[in-house]
């Protein structure tokens, strides 16, 4: 059995809770307030900068050229496909590229990226892949879930967002991340597989917290 097949029953319930989250539902039916979407765009942009570093760590720790190529494919997809779409969306939502780049990461955002980078720096390439997996995989799952929903139509202002994450390009990137995970998990002892699983579940919980943070437009608890 592939490693990612045994993971699925453990994350399924958590991932279905994303589809019930008010922020995700708001994207699905088009009712999400613009200010909340702008908060997501800004926080996500600086999140993706740290996420790109994570893939660079994975490339550096790769055991072979094939893994290195897969990490750099994901890195390229983040920097030049996903972040480019964020820049395009921001233009439509009155946010300048400078203000995207200068966003201060919120508490949850900082905790999430620090968690991933800490594990990736301490672990091997399989650990770095476990850190990045949920992120790519869960957005593709959400995009596909929303594109099959009632609110998916031309009048939904977030249709392009849904199309982007459900589309072929992101489905291919998700498949690359899954293949990389299975390749690097192959032959590992059970104790290490459990460690990878724990990271995937924790990052899945951080994903939920990220939606919550955007729904509440949270930054830090006190303004300094
Ligand atoms: C908090 C957060 N989690 C996941 C993604 C989605 N995502 C991040 S990297 C990647 C694959 C290559 O770009 C995908 C789909 C996001 N944007 N923000």
Automatic annotation (TrEMBL):
Q: Which domain of life is it from?
A: Bacteria
Read off the SUPFAM superfamilies from this record. Heme oxygenase-like (SSF48613)
Report the catalytic activity.
4-amino-5-aminomethyl-2-methylpyrimidine + H2O = 4-amino-5-hydroxymethyl-2-methylpyrimidine + NH4(+); thiamine + H2O = 5-(2-hydroxyethyl)-4-methylthiazole + 4-amino-5-hydroxymethyl-2-methylpyrimidine + H(+)
Alphabetized GO MF terms: thiaminase activity
Q: EC number(s) for this protein?
A: 3.5.99.2
Which Pfam families did the record assign? TENA_THI-4
The pathway it acts in is: Cofactor biosynthesis; thiamine diphosphate biosynthesis
Q: What class of enzyme is it?
A: hydrolase
Keywords associated with the record: Hydrolase, Thiamine biosynthesis
Q: Does the keyword Hydrolase apply?
A: yes
Annotated Thiaminase-2/PQQC domain residues: 8-214
The keyword Hydrolase appears for this protein: yes
Q: What does this protein do?
A: Catalyzes an amino-pyrimidine hydrolysis reaction at the C5' of the pyrimidine moiety of thiamine compounds, a reaction that is part of a thiamine salvage pathway. Thus, catalyzes the conversion of 4-amino-5-aminomethyl-2-methylpyrimidine to 4-amino-5-hydroxymethyl-2-methylpyrimidine (HMP). Is also able to catalyze the hydrolytic cleavage of thiamine; however, this thiaminase activity may not be physiologically relevant. Therefore, is probably involved in the regeneration of the thiamine pyrimidine from thiamine degraded products present in the environment, rather than in thiamine degradation.
Q: Subunit structure of this entry?
A: Homotetramer.
Family, similarity comment: Belongs to the TenA family.
* PANTHER family for the chain: BIFUNCTIONAL TH2 PROTEIN, SI:CH1073-67J19.1-RELATED
Q: What is this protein called?
A: Aminopyrimidine aminohydrolase
The organism is Corticicoccus populi
